[in-house]
């Protein structure tokens, strides 16, 4: 049993937090003023790591993620970061930002994506991190708190969204809706290599999901993926699918993928409009490729170019 736990920071923790930040070469400016929104990982009386939330108006800044050298590689940074993300959601923040020089691949796997420094909300300029505590070369990353990485515990909600699509439409070519256990298995199989994201409504309930899968198995296809998005029926037409797709495509680009593909069983005007809106272009139609509800069905194929450069290596795994 792991005896290391995460708890809110206390004033008496500051000396240890300050030392952790210094050892990790992270700025201390402005951290003490936000100590009420910090968490520490501890074992007994020993503080092993820390992470904090700095509020800048209605925006949040994830900062000071540091773990003692002898305890790195044990998922403490991830646990601390997730607690800060949960806190930001509970405070009603819509977005969480961070600045990093070296850890962008790590935060990418937690759902953050890089944005230009010029796109930072003006309120973040009040933070010491934006006033010179972090170097100008630090990369700005953003996390949309209404979208997160799926977990196996989301299987029931995802299966409920997908079931009526299978049983009542030709959008999906499955003939029987997968069980919750089957959906959980799909999430667990996908996530080590590729992203699976969920969107949350104002009550924190899953209202849509998007994921990527391998386009083909042979090695030369490894830089291409197939993408899928589904939205809960009562939330369609509210931008949920667009938000999910933009996050998914951004992650895939950062991982090193070149092309994203999507198949749309026709007719489906809403799906075609969504794919056009996020940058997909039509590439052709498979005629009468599926048979469902007593008729042959066509599938139009769409393509989104993620990056133009030739690959230097295989795409990175998502987790």
Describe the structure.
The protein has 319 residues and is an alpha+beta fold. The protein has 2 domains: 5-144, Gcn5-related N-acetyltransferase (GNAT) (Aminopeptidase, 3-Layer(aba) Sandwich), CATH 3.40.630; 147-305, Aminopeptidase, CATH 3.40.630.30. Helix content is 27%, strand content 31%.
- Ranges where pLDDT stays below 50 over 5 or more residues in a row are none
Q: What's the helical proportion of residues?
A: 25-40%
Give the integer mean of the pLDDT values.
93
Largest sheet: 7 strands, mixed
* Relative strand content: 25-35%
Number of domains: 2
Structural class: alpha+beta
**CATH homologous superfamily annotation of the largest domain:** Gcn5-related N-acetyltransferase (GNAT)
H/E order of the elements?
EHEEEHEHEHEEHHEEEHEHEE
Total helix count? 8
Assign the CATH topology of the largest domain. Answer: Aminopeptidase
Q: In CATH's first tier, which class of the largest domain applies?
A: Alpha Beta
Could you state the oligomeric state of the chains shown?
A: single chain
- Judging from the principal axes of the Cα atoms, what is the shape? elongated
Named at the architecture level, the CATH assignment of the largest domain is 3-Layer(aba) Sandwich
Termini gap: 24 Å
Question: How many E-type strands?
Answer: 14
In short:
With 319 residues, the chain is of the alpha+beta class. Helices cover 27% and strands 31% of the residues.
Strands, helices and their partners?
Blueprint (H helix, E strand, L loop, with lengths): L4 E4 L5 H10 L14 E6 L2 E11 L2 E9 L8 H15 L4 E6 L3 H5 L4 E3 L13 H5 L5 E6 L2 E3 L5 H14 L11 H11 L5 E5 L5 E9 L9 E8 L8 H16 L3 E7 L3 H9 L3 E12 L2 E11 L14
Parallel strand pairs: 4-5, 11-12
Antiparallel strand pairs: 1-2, 2-3, 3-4, 5-7, 6-7, 8-9, 9-10, 10-11, 12-14, 13-14
Helix pairs in contact: 5-6
């Amino acid at each position: 049993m792991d005896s290391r736990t995460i708890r809110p920071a206390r004033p008496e923790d500051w000396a240890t937090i300050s030392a952790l930040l210094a050892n990790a070469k992270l700025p201390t400016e402005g951290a003490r003023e936000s100590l009420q929104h910090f968490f520490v990982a501890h074992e007994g009386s020993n503080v092993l790591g820390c992470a904090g939330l700095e509020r800048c108006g209605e925006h949040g800044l994830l900062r000071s993620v540091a773990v003692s050298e002898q305890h790195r590689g044990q998922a403490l940074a991830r646990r601390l970061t997730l607690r800060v993300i949960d806190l930001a959601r509970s405070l009603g923040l819509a977005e969480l930002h961070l600045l990093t020089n070296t850890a962008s691949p790590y935060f990418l796997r937690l759902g953050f994506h890089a944005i230009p420094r010029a796109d930072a909300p003006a309120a973040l300029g009040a933070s010491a991190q934006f006033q010179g505590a972090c170097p100008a070369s630090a990369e700005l990353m953003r996390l949309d708190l209404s979208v997160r990485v799926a977990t196996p515990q989301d299987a029931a909600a995802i299966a409920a969204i997908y079931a009526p699509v299978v049983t009542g439409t030709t959008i999906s070519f499955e003939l029987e809706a997968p069980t919750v256990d089957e959906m959980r298995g799909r999430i667990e199989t996908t996530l080590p290599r590729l992203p699976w994201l969920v969107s949350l409504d104002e009550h924190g309930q899953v209202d849509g999901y998007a994921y990527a899968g391998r386009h083909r198995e042979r090695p030369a296809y490894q830089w291409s993926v197939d993408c899928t998005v589904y939205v809960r029926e009562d939330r369609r037409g509210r931008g949920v699918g667009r938000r999910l797709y933009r996050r998914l495509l951004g992650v895939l680009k950062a991982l090193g993928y070149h092309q994203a593909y999507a198949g749309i069983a026709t007719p489906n005007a809403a799906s075609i409009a969504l794919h056009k809106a996020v940058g997909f272009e039509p590439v052709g139609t498979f005629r009468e490729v599926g048979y469902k509800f007593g008729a042959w069905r066509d599938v139009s194929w769409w393509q989104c170019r993620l990056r133009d450069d030739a690959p230097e290596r295989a795409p990175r795994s998502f987790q």
